[in-house]
């Protein structure tokens, strides 16, 4: 009784504080933690179903799978359902994904396979997976690579799209510049199109010093005779 009292906390002590002997205290604690026989049977049925249906997923690491499997085994043991080493080994071997097929065949062909403990099988599979990790083509790694690749491709597509938009805008800018230059030309005055204007005769294309129009007018004037 003293050993039980030293091994529990205050909440558990409240369950057996009026109990007089260790046997009765043990039964109370057993029922509290494991339930009645009906509850235990229900739990065992659930654990058996989990044990039979659990499979290692293709994207899953073996360490994660074996932790879940051994948790089911240990809970079953606590409730009185003991799994033999042979049954545990068979469950592990038939629950692995195709990427472990070569290792499974090698283990089953090993002459010492029947003598191996589940812990040894687990250790060899963990070692096999760790050796294959650098060159592994597991879906989880492929998924990560595919995600990174898709992100890079998306960035490239975005860059190409941005470049195309910049080119389109630049071409539009050039067209607008050409259109503006065409609009400016008709608005220019006649003097800029015809050249320099002579301020004596009003003509274009020459200056007053080189003007011959006035000389001609002075030479022929009136009825067609020369005027000096």
From TrEMBL:
Chain spans, region Disordered: 132-161
Zinc keyword on record: yes
Keyword Secreted: no
Pfam families: Retrotran_gag_2, zf-CCHC
CCHC-type domain segment(s): 198-213
One Gene Ontology molecular-function label: nucleic acid binding
PANTHER family: OS04G0629600 PROTEIN
Protein name: CCHC-type domain-containing protein
């Amino acid at each position: 009784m003293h050993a039980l009292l030293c091994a529990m906390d205050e909440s558990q002590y409240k369950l057996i504080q009026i109990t007089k002997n260790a046997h009765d205290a043990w039964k109370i604690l057993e029922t509290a933690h494991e339930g009645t026989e009906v509850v235990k049977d229900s739990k065992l049925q659930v654990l058996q179903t989990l044990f039979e249906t659990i499979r290692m997923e293709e994207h899953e690491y073996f360490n994660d799978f074996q932790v879940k499997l051994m948790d089911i085994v240990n809970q079953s043991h606590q409730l009185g359902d003991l799994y033999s080493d042979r049954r545990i080994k068979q469950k592990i071997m038939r629950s692995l994904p195709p990427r472990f097929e070569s290792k499974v065949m090698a283990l089953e062909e090993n002459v010492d396979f029947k003598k191996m403990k589940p812990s040894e099988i687990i250790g060899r599979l963990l070692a096999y997976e760790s050796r294959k990790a650098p060159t592994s083509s597991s879906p989880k790694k492929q998924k990560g690579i595919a995600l990174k690749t898709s992100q890079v491709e998306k960035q490239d597509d975005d860059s190409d799209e941005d470049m195309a938009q910049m080119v389109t805008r630049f071409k539009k800018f050039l067209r607008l510049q050409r259109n503006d230059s065409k609009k400016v030309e008709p608005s220019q005055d006649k003097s800029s199109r015809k050249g320099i204007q002579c301020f004596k005769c009003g003509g274009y294309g020459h200056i007053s010093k080189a003007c011959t129009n006035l000389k001609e007018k002075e030479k022929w004037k009136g009825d067609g005779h020369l005027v000096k």
